[in-house]
Amino acid sequence: MPGYLRFENVTRRFGSFTAVDRVSLEIEKGEVFSLLGPSGCGKTTLLRMAAGFDVPDEGRIFLDGVDITRLPPDQRPVNTVFQSYALFPHLSIRENIAFGPKLSKRSPAEIRSEVERMLELVDLTAHADKKPAQLSGGQKQRVAIARALVNKPKVLLLDEPLAALDLKLRQRLLVELDAIHDEVGITFIYVTHDQGEAMSISDRIAVMNKGVVEQIGKPAEIYEAPRTSFVAAFIGDTNFLDGKITSRIGERFSKCAIHGIGEIIIDNDKPTSPGDLVHLSLRPEKIIVSRNRPELRENENSVPGVIEDIIYFGSHTRLWVRCGGWRICAETQHRTYQLDDTPLNWGDTIHLRWHANDGYLLEQYREEDESLLTLPDET
Amino acid sequence: MKPSRIPLVTTGIVLAFFYLPIAALVAKSFNSSRFSPEWKGFTLKWYERLFERDDILAALVNSLKVALIAASASMLLGTCAAFALHRYKSRLQDAHRMMVNVPLVLPDILMGMSLLLLFIAAGVSLSLATVTIAHITFCLSYVTLVVLARLQDFDPNIVEAARDLGATRLQAFVKITLPILFPGILAGGLLAFTLSIDDYVVTFFVKGPGSDTLPTLVYSMIKKSKELPVINALSTLMLLFTFLLVFASQRLTRPVNR
Ligand SMILES: Nc1ncnc2c1ncn2[C@@H]1O[C@H](COP(=O)(O)OP(=O)(O)O)[C@@H](O)[C@H]1O
Ligand SMILES: [Mg+2]
To answer: Are strands A155-159 and A78-81 parallel, antiparallel or unpaired?
Structure first.
């Protein structure tokens, strides 16, 4: 079955700059679908084409089987929540929400009850007669959501709806937004540059970089099985190791030589053969740290190293460990009372252990572009 | 620490500087002495005299006509120009922007001269119509800049939001853009009105016979000093009116979000 909202090879250029490059997406009815990527990667441009504020140079957009590529915004059953809220400053909250319904051919009584229901949904009944300027950021955001939802759009587009709010409020509104989605069951497209937001609210995520979709998948798939080094680095933290496949161990595993560390066992997440150069991603929390050389079970790796940095976070601690030429980050969870232990210290030699399964094989590369990992800019 | 007295003192000096002459004028308009500056008792006779003079009334009507038409026309044209300047970015628009700014600094005498030359060259006979056209010319820039300032702190997403919610281009303009901009447009119009009603220099060049406005008439009356107290009375009334206008326009130009 084709997607409910479908982007087919959509391209948008501004002069010689390609903001959105041959993007194809299939978004299912009722899901929360996130567009995730660093600032400037083309998320807003893509969303604006779905809303009708912008038209693709190439490609087409379908909604519920209808080609909407060139339909003006007022004729699309789609509504937008803007990052700047874009509330009408001269109208009260109630009039803001009633703006869409009043333009439709619905009866006044019906409009009134719909607007009241929406005010209740976003918990703003007490503020209905205020002007937008009298509300806090979080309240304005809720008005923007209500103003869009009251039109019962087929798809709700949200462009970084929480970016302007502080962290605590952001977390609370995210939960509220999730509850609203459960209640109305409308398809959401959620644009954000915050991987935490995307992971927690989405059914599926498309990770974008420089106008291109790098990977589409469920949050866990994207985190556990990133298709590219960009995705691995953008979603959560990870260690990258470069190595060369030396031999195979049965169907699933291979041996891989890492310069300065030696041979480790890796999972064949992608088809490889001896001699291939590969990038490997190893998440900090997948590494088990011990003072003594651990007993290895089948297909486990152990690497000794010296602690260079320690940061204590309360619930966990991060260690930066020097192993040969590599600086590897490992995370220890504190599931039990910590003060009784003899703590780890700078300069201690420890052992890092992980199962071949817990590393993830990224793209191969050729000798000549050895250092060309595509990583997000430091933020 | 004791608060500094400097702000108080400067404020006092500034106020005195502006308002002492005005106070003198207002006082004189109620002084029954015709020539001497000393106080000879309260009187309203200059006001009575004022209302008996048909030429002053006619000039006042002329001034109001010109100011109203010039203000309305420059509100309309200025708003259009502001939209064009705001929406389109090009070389031509850069030139447009510069040309809008120039009349603000152009000496009135130059503008009056050039308009006069133009009217003569075009064979247009001077009348109240030429005065009106001249006033529109210099009011336009002010209105354009006031509206443009308003447009520039206007979130373009607001119009898109209206379209998104089902409004056509026209509906979005009428229901959203215009109401939000209206205070700015009106403030520009008020400014134009005040500029037009007290213009002397430009009017002097382009007025025809019988098309005196209040400022040009007052100037010719000053030459006959017999009439001075009547002019004081007239000025006092105009002062009152101006204060009301300034008060109104300040209320209108307050930012949208307050
Ligand atoms: N109207 C426009 N004209 C020129 N360049 C634009 C325009 N809109 C967006 N861009 C460029 O396209 C790129 C992607 O922008 P955008 O979609 O807003 O990114 P994001 O929302 O992911 O931060 C940016 O580099 C931006 O400068
Ligand atoms: Mg954006």
So the answer is: parallel
